[in-house]
Amino acid sequence: xxxxxxxxxxxxxxxxxxxxxxxxxAQVERPSAIDRIRSAASKVKASLAQPIDNRxxxxxxxxxxxxxx
Length: 69
Prior knowledge:
The chain is mainly alpha-helical. It has helices at residues 2-27, 33-49, 52-55. 68% of the residues lie in helices and 0% in strands. The longest helix has 26 residues, at 2-27. The radius of gyration is 27 Å and the shape is elongated.
């Protein structure tokens, strides 16, 4: 009898966990894929619109590095 009760309780707890997960998924507000693509495209466009002199180097300068001797 106790084993059957454990099975019923575990099934009920699993249902509760699934409902909670579904509610959390419904509450998350994410931008759509199109909005994310537009954002990435605008960032690329803005970086390409800058003059080459202002973009800087790909690697940081090592002028004041603590590893320098």
